[in-house]
Amino acid sequence: MSVILPVAQRGEDILRLKAARVADAEFNSDWLMQLASAMIATMLERSGVGIAAPQVYISKRVIIVASRPNLRYPDAPEMDAVVMVNPEILEFSQATCLGEEGCLSVPDQRGVVERAQVVKVRYYTLQGEIVEKTFEGFPARIVQHEVDHLDGVLFVERMST
């Protein structure tokens, strides 16, 4: 059974740091596999649709994007969880959309954030293979939200007032 990790809350320093890249030597390591597994378990336990390593006190560039309907996001599309190591958004569409966001690190607040409708992302798998993939709609929103965490930005800083 996977470990459920504590989640950093707004105001904690870890959430303001720019996370470090995962080093080549860390790919395919037990450490990285266990981190990904614990992040997924923690995200599911808290009804999240994404999570970033800094949210579980690990300042590394690892995110999970896992859109699926749940209590917090009843209309979310269903997709398999994608673990992204060292993700980089290569392209943002000109078209944007407004959508409501919440965050496991800001449990008492939700807000509307404008995001690109489509993003193209380059990331590595846990094994170190490089992947380029395009995400659209709600999954694209999750990618942007989680990549923000890696750069020390919370969604509340991007909210439209």
Which secondary structure elements does this structure contain, and how are they paired or packed?
Elements: H1 30-45, E1 50-52, E2 62-65, E3 82-92, E4 96-103, E5 106-116, E6 118-124, E7 130-136, H2 138-150
Antiparallel strand pairs: 1-2, 2-3, 3-6, 4-5, 6-7
What does the model show?
The protein has 161 residues and is of the alpha+beta class. Helices cover 18% and strands 32% of the residues. The chain has two helices and seven strands. The strands form two sheets. A five-stranded antiparallel β-sheet has the order 1-2-3-6-7, sandwiched between helices. It is globular and about 40 Å long. It starts with 29 loop residues before the first helix and ends in an 11-residue tail after the last helix. The model has no long low-confidence stretch (mean pLDDT 96).
Outline:
The chain is an alpha+beta fold. It has helices at about 30-45, 140-150; strands at about 50, 60-65, 80-90, 95-105, 105-115, 120-125, 130-135. Helix content is about 20%, strand content about 30%.
Strand content: 25-35%
Distance between the termini: 42 Å
For the largest beta-sheet, the strand count, sense and barrel status come to: 5 strands, antiparallel
Assembly state (oligomeric): single chain
Q: How many individual helices?
A: 2
Low-confidence stretches: none
The structure class reads alpha+beta
Strand segment tally: 7
| Secondary-structure element order, N to C | HEEEEEEEH
Sequence of strands across the biggest β-sheet? 1-2-3-6-7
Mean pLDDT rating: 96
What best-fitting shape do the alpha-carbon axes yield? globular
Q: Tell me the radius of gyration.
A: 15 Å
Please give the share of residues in helix: 10-25%
